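Hey, quick one: can you model this chain's 3D structure?
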Amino acid sequence: MQISPRKAEKPSLWIIAGPNGSGKSTLYNRTDIDGWGGSIWIINPDLLTLRLMEQESLAQNDANRAALDRIQNWLDASIEVHQTIGVETVLSTPKYRALIERAKARGFDVRMLYVVLESAELQIERVKLRVSEGGHDVPAEKIIARRARSFEQLALFAKHLDYLAIFDNSRGDPKLVAIKKYKRPLSVVGPLPADLKAMLQANLVIE
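Sure thing. Here's the predicted structure for all 207 residues.
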């Protein structure tokens, strides 16, 4: 099945979102999402922070702040010149709402790919695996708290998106479980995690 909103005609702002450890980068090589491909620049905050630490000898906190500033500048510049761009985020805060408003005012399609796991416990295990392979750690209590906040933000963002596809990556092969195309409501096409389903229902995103 082609997971397609329509052939891309306008510049797009892509937001690749999901709780810690959900595997957002697993979507990068998908070929069944129209308008999505290797030519789109997706900013990965974690990789940028690591690069700043290595190449500019910044401490982690300083690198985090510098990365956030640069990302915001890149996003703002791309919106200004009508250039398609994307960014990864846990989506645990409302910081990208203003960006979405500016993008839509400039004629962008705003599209989100959201990746979720069935439980916070599975996220914690995935993060542990990532650490064992040299990746960055996230404390378990933050993983749990951010999951709830990310679901809350997703429910609020969903109403302002032109396109939204939610994937369950619990088995390591992301499966489409819900999709929204433009003016249509979010359609559930597979089993959602119970806590995500409850949040979407509470915010009237789904019945």
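One thing worth noting: The first helix runs from residue 45 to 55.
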